[in-house]
Amino acid sequence: MKKKRVLITGGSGFLGSHLCERLLSMGREVICVDNFFTGSKRNILHLLDDPYFEVIRHDVTFPLYIEVDEIYNLACPASPIHYQHDPVQTTKTSVHGAINMLGLAKRVKAKIFQASTSEVYGDPEVHPQPESYWGNVNPNGLRACYDEGKRCAETLFFDYNRQHGLNIKVGRIFNTYGPRMAMDDGRVVSNFVVQALKGEDITIYGTGEQTRSFCYVDDLVDGIVRFMEDTPDDFIGPMNLGNPGEFTIRELAETVIEQVGSTSKIAYKPLPSDDPLQRKPDITLAKRTIGWEPQIDIVTGLASTIDFFKGYLKA
Ligand code: NAD
Ligand code: UDP
Ligand code: UDP
C-alpha cells in the first residue's frame, strides 16, 4: 500500500521534531519544512538516514507547491523572546503561512492541522479555559504579534472550511515541555532546568504567583495525532490540548531545584508586559471526543527533560 505523505511545517522545532518522529514510526512518509529560525538540524539529525524522511529549507510566508496527503502546520516561533525578536515576521508567519498552507491543502485536497495556542485566550477572565471562551487579548501589546497572528490563522482555517469545504483540525496547545526545547529560547521550563543544572540563579519574573499548566511533549503529540487520525471530518475543533495540572511559577522553580538537587537560589526579575496571570485548559472536549488526557506527571516529565539538558550541557 502507498504510504501516506505528510507535510510538517516547523518540523525541525521542539514539537515538530517529535511529531516527525512519531509519524515516521507510524509508517508515514514525512516531509519537514522549516526555515530554521528557532528549529535546529540537531533535532532531526537522527531522522536523516530514514529514506521516508525529507527536509526542505523554506519559509512558509512564501508559496510552496508540493504533493501531500496531510499537513500539520506548526511553523511559528513559540517563545516570547523569539516571537518578539521580529514581530512583523511572526504575524506574517502565522497569517501568510496559514494562507499558503491552506491554499496548498485546497489544491491537493489534504487534511490540515493548525497548531493554535492557549494564547488565543490572552490573559483569561474565565478559569479554566474552555474552547467556548473568546479570550482577553491586547491587540497592540508585545505579545499581540503572536496572539493575534494565531487568532487570525484560526479565522482563516474556519473560513477555508466554510468557504471551500477544507478538512481542517484546529488544536489549541497549552504550555508543553520536554527534551529538545531550545536551551536559549527563554521558556520557563528550559530556563529553570538549565539554571538549576548550572547552579545559577533561578529567574522568576514577577512574584511567581502566576500559574501555568505544563504538558509533557509525548502526551501532546498523542493528542495531536489522535485528533488528526481518529475524529470524523465534521469534528474540526477548536480543541484544547494540554495538561490541566496547574502550578504557580514559584512552585515550578522549587520543584526543579529539588529534582536537580541544585544549590541555585531564586532571583526575582520584572514581569514582562501582558504576561497572563493564570492558565489551565478545560480538556473535557478532548476527553470526550478522542478519549485523551495526559498520562505523564510533572515529576516524570521533568526527569527526562533534566536528563536531556544534562546531556546537552556535557556535549
Ligand atoms: P519552536 O520554535 O521549537 O518550533 C517552531 C518551528 O517553526 C521552528 O523549527 C522554526 O524554525 C520554524 N519556523 C518559524 N518560522 C518559520 C517560517 N516562517 N517558515 C518555516 N518555518 C518556520 O516551537 P514549538 O514549541 O515546537 O512550537 C511549534 C508550534 O506549536 C508553534 O506553531 C507554536 O505556536 C505552537 N505551540 C507551542 C506551544 C508550546 O508550549 N511548545 C504552545 C502553544 C502552541
Ligand atoms: N499556494 C501554495 N501552494 C499551493 C497552492 C496555493 O503555496 O499548492 C498559496 C498561493 O500563494 C496562494 C495561497 O496559497 O496565494 C492561497 O491559495 P488559494 O487557492 O486559496 O487562493 P488564491 O490566492 O490562489 O486565489
Ligand atoms: N517565566 C519566569 N522566568 C523565566 C521564564 C519565564 O518566571 O525565566 C515566567 C513567565 O513570565 C510566564 C511563565 O513563566 O509567567 C511562562 O513563561 P513562558 O515564556 O514559558 O510561556 P508563556 O508565558 O508563553 O506561557
TrEMBL record:
InterPro entries linked: NAD(P)-bd_dom (IPR016040), NAD(P)-bd_dom_sf (IPR036291), UXS-like (IPR044516)
Enzyme superclass (EC): lyase
Chief location bin: Golgi
Keyword Membrane listed: yes
The protein's annotated pathway: Nucleotide-sugar biosynthesis; UDP-alpha-D-xylose biosynthesis; UDP-alpha-D-xylose from UDP-alpha-D-glucuronate: step 1/1
One Pfam short name: GDP_Man_Dehyd
Family: Belongs to the NAD(P)-dependent epimerase/dehydratase family. UDP-glucuronic acid decarboxylase subfamily.
UniProt-recorded name of the protein: UDP-glucuronate decarboxylase
